[in-house]
């Protein structure tokens, strides 16, 4: 690296490419940093000389995991964000067409799924689409293996989940007993983001990976099997064996946005069958010569899997259409303002004549 002081950031993912990209910022007197957490216009940032607090009001949408250019001084401030290599983005909880970035520059997305509760395959497919679309590598981590009846039940659950996760790695562990944690540690690499619903064991797993009880954990309610949101913000922490961990609050709802590529990877089996459909625009509904429906009828593809595929496709298309409508409205608004300004200008110039 061109700057020896940047070596302190290598534990957080800093590399030669980032150093090269940062040259123009360094020449302007700015310093590199990785954003560890964001709250109320401020952020915790890791710099070459250690952690500090910085203002974020000068940039739009900073997120945990971002690499930033900081303006040092008595009141440090984020001056710019470096381009994101990857980003986990979900649809806004408000239903708007804009997305919400959950974590940036993630290498591995660890989707935590509790084996102590009935497995929701549809939710796993949704989280997989989110992970694939981010550009990071998804890994499904089946947690709470100590709470299943035995090896046969664990194997059955693993097979059930593997069937809806083509191309994704799948591991299981018990953070409570430590069984399988070494395997999970070996599979998860780089910047790791833990995602999943509350009560799936994210924070407990995170503590096992960190080797210390630093993340708050909570119990699962017996009446509905749901956990409390013990993680209240996304926070980045270094791992003892290298890499960094981002623990995220539990996701009650995950809306997809611009996730066509993620859906293709998640439903690679359906997409593969669709190549043999008679019509290239087959909706896999009632069209003649549909290879996907034929596979369902033959028992090679579960009907639930096809229904989930079509549901998520419709949702993604609907969000995309809302985005198009928003852009059209914004363009129309700008045109209206410009027209008004020009009319006022012509009116003033006419009076001067």
TrEMBL record:
Residues noted as binding GTP in the record, renumbered to the chain: 143-146, 196-204
Co-factor binding details: Binds 1 zinc ion per subunit.
Gene name as annotated: rsgA_2
The protein's name in its UniProt record: Small ribosomal subunit biogenesis GTPase RsgA
Pfam families: RsgA_GTPase (PF03193)
HAMAP family: GTPase_RsgA (MF_01820)
Keywords noted in UniProt: Cytoplasm, GTP-binding, Hydrolase, Metal-binding, Nucleotide-binding, Ribosome biogenesis, RNA-binding, rRNA-binding, Zinc
Binding site for Zn(2+): 277, 282, 284, 290
Lineage of origin: Bacteria, Bacillati, Actinomycetota, Actinomycetes, Streptosporangiales
Organism: Actinomadura vinacea
Domain named CP-type G: residues: 96-254
Main subcellular localisation: cytoplasm
Domain (EngC GTPase): residue spans on this chain: 104-252
Subcellular location: Cytoplasm
Record family assignment: Belongs to the TRAFAC class YlqF/YawG GTPase family. RsgA subfamily.
Source domain of life: Bacteria
